[in-house]
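[agent] plan:
  1. take the single chain provided in the ticket
  2. run structure prediction with default settings
  3. attach structure tokens to the ticket
  4. add a short note for the reviewer (M.T.)
[agent] executing step 1
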Amino acid sequence: MAEVTNQKYSILIVDDSEEDSFFLERALRQSTRFQVVGAVRDGEEAISYLSGLDQYQDRQLWPIPDVLLMDLKMPRLNGFEVLEWLQKQSFPGLKVVILSGSSMAGDIQRVKALGADAFYTKSAPNSKLVEMVGNLEQFLINSGPNSEMPIPSPKPE
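[agent] step 2 finished; step 3 output follows
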């Protein structure tokens, strides 16, 4: 039986900011555990990817990820709407990790209620992304059915 610590995670990045996606992908590539399988710009495109629609039909090119790393505030469909859609779908083993500029208590409670597995706050200095990727790696390695969702200290609304 293979050691769990050797597991590699495929990640789909869902973020409307090209700059955030670029730096996030660069930080993820510094870890041997992560493979970015795609990056999409909004919730509608994320649903197309996960559903295998349009250009995402070929699962050899566009595999179902292990981790959906998603922003909340996006055009067309936002992260909350994607989480609502995911509740009606079946993607066994898919971990949904929110990476958002918002750390308001209401947003954190809502994503938790909608089934997100983890919530990380985007930090202004991109150097903090490497630290966040390390934290994400540890969460994924140690997560089980009763794992507590890692959340930041909420800001009052």
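[agent] step 4 note for reviewer: Strands lie at 9-14, 34-40, 67-70, 95-100, 118-121.
[agent] ticket updated
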